[in-house]
From TrEMBL:
InterPro entries: Acyl-CoA_Oxase/DH_mid-dom (IPR006091), Acyl-CoA_Oxase/DH_mid-dom_sf (IPR046373), AcylCo_DH-like_C (IPR036250), AcylCo_DH/oxidase_C (IPR009075), AcylCoA_DH/ox_N (IPR013786), AcylCoA_DH/ox_N_sf (IPR037069), AcylCoA_DH/oxidase_NM_dom_sf (IPR009100), Mycobact_Acyl-CoA_DH (IPR052161)
Pfam families referenced in this protein's UniProt entry, alphabetically: Acyl-CoA_dh_1 (PF00441), Acyl-CoA_dh_M (PF02770), Acyl-CoA_dh_N (PF02771)
Keywords tagged on the record: FAD, Flavoprotein, Oxidoreductase
Family per similarity comment: Belongs to the acyl-CoA dehydrogenase family.
Protein name: Acyl-CoA dehydrogenase
Cofactor: FAD
Amino acid sequence: MKLSFSAQDEQFREEVAEWLQANLTGEFEKLKYRGGPGDEHTYPEERKIWEKNLAAGGWTCVGWPKEYGGRGCSIEQQVIFFEEYARAGAPGRVGHIGEGLTGLTLIAFGTEAQKQKYLPGIVAGTELWCQGYSEPGAGSDLANVKTKARFDEARGKWLISGQKVWTSLAHESDFCFVIARTDPDSVAHKGLGFFLLKMDQPGVEVRPIEQMTGTSEFNEVFFDEAECDADDIVGEPGDGWKVAMGLLGFERGVSTLGQQMQFQNEFDAVVSLARDNGAASDPVIRQRIAHAHTELKIMRYNAMRMLSGQSGSDGGLQKEALIYKLYWASWHRSLGELAMDVMGPECEILPEGPYALSPLQSMYLFVRSDTIYGGTNQIQRNIIAERGLGMPKEPRGTL
């Protein structure tokens, strides 16, 4: 794992920093440090415009191959991009699911026709995506999905019916990738398909899920014979599990660096508050801040280590990647608790009208979900034990 950067990489850093400094002004000035988890409701339309501005400057999909509209940046340059994006306080990305998940999955598993159809809109920042994985009875257990896909020969369409839940930004998205069962008699990971589905059509209903923060990043999505073109299944019917697992490899991949961008900004806000209100003079608070800082650095180094060991274009990662979700979710939850202790009694009151939560209060409430979505901490420990350490599977008792 490389912990230093070449002269060429440092020149690239200057280019990124200069562009961000020149562009995070005027109409985009108010977007600085906004739009992350728990704050996703702020300036949604303005952040969509920012996404297009990033694209115009050539700063979307920086790690994608050049033939698909990316910059073809090395891992080192991608690290630099996310570091400078964080340092500049650039806003949370509304296109991160398309860029970090959909696009990379299509590059690895999609047909050339699918790549030509969908990748340009992601690169341009004009088409946003959401993820149709979890269901009421299939959260961490993705192989238990019940959503069905049947092919209508007369119409030449796949018809999708079922329900997805905890679908981030579904209300803002143009498309959704959906795991559905193509074989109604199949069980577990067999008989699944991976579909690319347009959201704005009859048969698709999005219902917001109001969170403790009072906002609704997550949604329920209901499909009632929603149409999907015959050539909008990635791979063959039955390949859905393979494609879905490849996508999860990308979720643990370079997109994690963008997540750490947000973590660093939140940590800096906690430190700044501790200095301003005197909490930093408390030795226990100082120790907790030092501990959080150390663990955040470890998170970065481990991310670089696992990316250095990435095995190929299919998103495969070394076993070190198995610990990442458990690590960051637990760290982020602890940061929320630290933020409230730094705020002191003021954490229980709202500062002024219209009495909206402060960014740190929103962060504290939102991070309660971190150890649940994307695989609960308990599931993550099972994955580490079984896939990483080769231990026997957890016994499954019957009632």
